[in-house]
Amino acid sequence: MPIPIALLLIGFLFYFVGQIALLVAAFKESVVWGLCVLIIPFAALVFLIKCWEAAKQPFLVAIMGGGLIGAGLYLGRNDLSKDKNFAQIYAKLPPLFAGDAAPDKKEETPEQRHDRVKAEFAKDATELKAKYDALQTQWATVQKSGDKAGRAAFDKEAAAYAELRKKVEAEKAEAEDPAPKTSTTSAQPPRPAASTPAH
What we know:
76% of the residues lie in helices and 0% in strands.
């Protein structure tokens, strides 16, 4: 069994035993304490502060379990993240664990960027045409009704249309440029200009 898996299993076992022992200690103290720890959120923390001597050992066992769980997650962040059973869990973990296991994104080549921009331009241009037709219909309705609320809604849609149009125009300019080719030769450093001797 891999060490990270073993640490996780042992950690969960220690944590579970610590929680059960804490609950037993609370019931030994009094039934009220036991019911509070069992039902009320954060009652265990209050019990830990009020009855430290009774709760100390279960608390330390649970803390040890939590430490083992953390160590297992950290050591197995690369292997476990590839397992389907842990994929969703690792997707929600903080960057300390999940970020290290995430595959590095490859840098986009100029050709790939050009193809992506062309695809985005085609999609956004279709959306722009649909927005324009909708605005014409909406403007005709506003002119007939004279509704101020309708005019405000039209102005909002018109502003969104203007922003989208700027984006489409920028995409069009980039998409119509010929696709750049990735240079296979290394660029030569520029030579320093010859200095003119002083007279």
